[in-house]
Design a protein that fits this description.
Elements lengths: L23 H6 L14 E7 L2 E8 L6 E9 L4 E10 L12 E2 L1 E2 L6 E8 L3 E11 L2 E11 L9 H25 L13 H39 L7 E5 L3 E5 L35 E7 L5 E4 L2 E4 L2 E5 L6 E10 L5 E10 L17 E3 L8 E3 L5 E4 L12 E8 L9 E2 L7 E6 L5 E4 L7 H9 L12 H6 L6 E6 L5 E11 L2 E11 L2 H10 L1
Antiparallel strand pairs: 1-2, 2-3, 3-7, 4-5, 4-8, 6-7, 8-9, 10-11, 11-15, 12-13, 12-16, 13-18, 14-15, 16-17, 19-20, 20-21, 21-25, 22-26, 23-24, 23-26, 26-27
């Protein structure tokens, strides 16, 4: 039986100003969502092992720092009796000073799910340590996360007006209380205040009013200054500078970390005399993973690995490309374990392929210029197919999903010549069609593999022999024709999913489309049933 390919892809595509001290807490709660290494995809998903226990961990970082992270742990086999969670620094002294763990709550609806909340007190690289307890004993798993605050949002005018009115009522009431306490309250019932008492009450009330107004002005000044400082410390998405040089060499200049990237470092890890882009570490074998995506049709997709020239400068010999507009996503990891994606866009002329005298790319570079995305079945080379084993139910945002892809021959037999690709079963890129969401995902999840290794070996996590069993699981060397990726769409919209595997010595790329509906649309679909 030969699979029929579906060839109908879906393609579509501030500072806070203080009002009064009474609005402070509400303003703090209105700061915008956390930024992370993945563009527009702040949550972290991790499929790993705490000793013998297979866990799927979802971490939703706090919207602001300090703030509360939400943790969900699913026991895949249902063999875990209890989960404790605690936050720790990924590197430095904080990685060795463990706080008292909090017990996660077991879900009454699904006993395999445990949930909890943790305070993240400062920006930077953290890890959530999972202590699992079951019939096979105790074991640990550390999940690295990046915690930073993004740009602040302005307060809604209607809410600001309401708070201003309430504040004015409180001020008038407080002044009235002061006046009454120094006039009517000191008189006998029915007695009238004397002229001297009235003068005394007027003086004290005036002084109190000046003091209250002064406190409000000072509070407004303090809040405005604090909000401005928070805005300056907010993490801004860095932009890589791109230049096409003679010989079809793409030069990349990472954005100066003194403008944005250095802010995620805590003070004890910051070196003001050193440019912070010379601290990059390899992530599964490469200093940078570069994704080049042709827009708007997204039929060209390339996963490349530029060479470091010096510090923030990289170069990449381009493969053959059709002319057009391209989006660029450059993944890097700092030595603190902090992952970062720098973004860019550029127009390219037609680039000659190696068959026409172009420059060959390295062994791990791979992609295609002829990717017509499928809904479920994508045709590979040599009569093989990649099948997305997708759930028939509508896709939802902010929900952990195991994306499963199976490779078969034309007769439906599973592929027997699958190989490891850069130490794991495969790579996937989830990209919303407007470019506002990008995530480079592995079989272990959406976390950086370099950060995962730091999490398991730093700060004493590996002191527990059982926790070291999580390390081999990160490689996910293919044992079958199926590769899985844990991930959750952060927003509704139209997405492309690019899946790369290695078979018979050749890296192949499958492309799929996914439509994630808004909640109100999903509710209407359910009601229609």
């Amino acid at each position: 039986m030969k699979h029929k390919q579906n060839q109908k892809p879906n393609r579509k595509s501030v500072p806070i100003s203080g009002i009064s001290v009474f609005s402070g807490m509400l303003l703090f709660l209105l700061l915008c969502a956390t930024a992370s290494a993945h563009v527009g995809s702040p949550d972290f998903y991790y499929d790993g092992y705490a000793g013998p226990y297979h866990l799927l961990v979802t971490v939703r970082p706090p919207a602001v720092i300090p703030g509360i992270a939400e943790i969900q742990v699913r026991s895949v086999a249902g063999d875990v009796n209890g989960i404790d969670i605690l936050p720790m620094r990924l590197v430095g002294q904080g990685a060795k000073l463990a706080p008292t763990p909090d017990a996660a709550d077991r879900s009454s609806a699904d006993p395999q799910v445990f949930t909890g909340k943790l305070w993240i007190m400062s920006r930077g690289s953290w890890k959530v340590q999972i202590n699992a307890n079951g019939a096979k004993g105790k074991a640990e798993l550390a999940v690295p996360i990046a915690a930073v605050s993004g740009t602040s949002l302005r307060m809604q005018k209607s809410l600001g007006a309401l708070l201003a009115v309430l504040g004015l009522v409180l001020v008038v009431g407080l002044v009235g209380i002061v006046r009454a306490a120094n006039s009517d309250a000191v008189l006998a019932p029915g007695a009238k205040p004397s002229p001297s008492l009235r003068r005394r009450a007027l003086v004290i009330t005036s002084i109190a009013a000046v003091f209250i107004v002064g406190a409000l002005v000072f509070g407004d000044f303090w809040w405005t200054a604090d909000a401005s400082n928070t805005e300056k410390l907010s993490y801004k998405l860095p932009h890589v500078q791109l230049l096409l040089q003679q010989g079809n060499i793409l030069r990349l200049q990472l954005e100066n970390p003194n403008d944005v990237s250095w802010r995620q470092y805590p003070s004890e890890l910051r070196d003001p005399d050193q440019v912070r882009l010379d601290d990059l570490i390899p992530d599964h074998g490469h200093i940078m993973h570069l994704f080049l995506v042709g827009t708007p049709d997204m039929t060209s997709f390339w996963h490349l690995h530029p060479q470091e020239v010096s510090g923030a400068d990289f170069s990449q010999a381009l493969p053959g490309l059709p002319p057009g507009h391209y989006r660029v996503f450059a993944d890097i990891v700092h030595k603190t374990g902090f992952p970062e994606t720098q973004v860019g866009e550029m127009d390219l002329p037609a680039i000659a392929g190696i068959e026409n005298g172009g420059i060959p790319h390295t062994n791990d570079d791979a992609g295609s210029n002829h990717l017509v995305a499928a809904d479920k079945v994508f045709e590979l080379s040599d009569g093989y197919y990649m099948i997305w084993e997708r759930d028939p139910r509508p896709l939802k945002a902010n929900q952990a999903i195991w994306f499963r892809f199976r490779v078969e021959d034309s007769k439906g037999n599973p592929a027997t010549d699958m190989e490891s690709y850069m130490g794991m079963a495969g790579h996937a890129a989830f990209i919303r069609d407007d470019g506002q969401v990008f995530a480079h995902v592995h079989p272990a999840g959406s976390i950086s593999m370099a950060a995962a290794e730091l999490a398991q070996t730093n700060g004493g996590s590996s002191a527990n022999p059982s926790s070291t069993q999580a390390m081999p699981a990160m490689n996910h060397t293919p044992a079958s024709a199926e590769v899985t990726f844990p991930y959750g769409f952060p927003q509704p919209g139209d997405y492309h999913i690019f899946v790369q595997i290695k078979r018979a010595g050749k890296i192949e790329t499958g492309a799929f489309v996914a439509k994630v509906a808004e909640k109100k649309i999903l509710d209407a679909a359910v009601a229609a049933r």
